[in-house]
Design brief:
The protein is mostly helical and about 130 residues long. The chain contains five helices and no strands.
Length: about 130
């Protein structure tokens, strides 16, 4: 399970790093990985599911933008980033989220994160 979580974190980090380009839209109308839009989508989803107030929305938006920048830096120069450093960053982000949310909101957020990990835990990417 620990190996899977490492792979999941690496994949997430690669996604964030890929989003750091201004526009990853390919020919023929491919995907647009605008980091600003991705942050907005994530915060909007949390706003709805956790009933966030305007102050929480701003703080989370700023936090996720900062996290995207840090993830992009980890991938500068190619290759895989230090997994320990990635885990450290994820832990710091979770601690910041906990400070922003109320106890009830954080509980609901944590349960959703756990559910997502379990959902993706059944065989990994592509059945590996």
């Amino acid at each position: 399970m620990k190996k899977f979580l490492m792979i999941l974190m690496a994949a997430g980090a690669m996604l964030f790093a890929g989003m750091s380009s201004a526009n990853a839209q390919g020919p023929g109308g491919g995907f647009n990985f605008d980091p600003e839009e991705m942050v907005k989508m994530r915060v909007d989803q949390m706003k709805e599911s956790l009933k966030l107030n305007d102050s929480q929305v701003k703080k989370l938006t700023d936090l996720f933008k900062k996290q995207n920048e840090e993830m992009a830096k980890m991938f500068e120069g190619g290759g895989m980033p230090d997994m320990e450093k990635m885990q450290e960053n994820m832990k710091k982000q979770d601690e910041e989220i906990k400070k922003i949310l109320t106890a009830d909101q954080y509980k609901a957020y944590s349960e959703e994160q756990k559910r997502m990990r379990e959902q993706f835990g059944g065989g990994g990417f592509g059945g590996f």
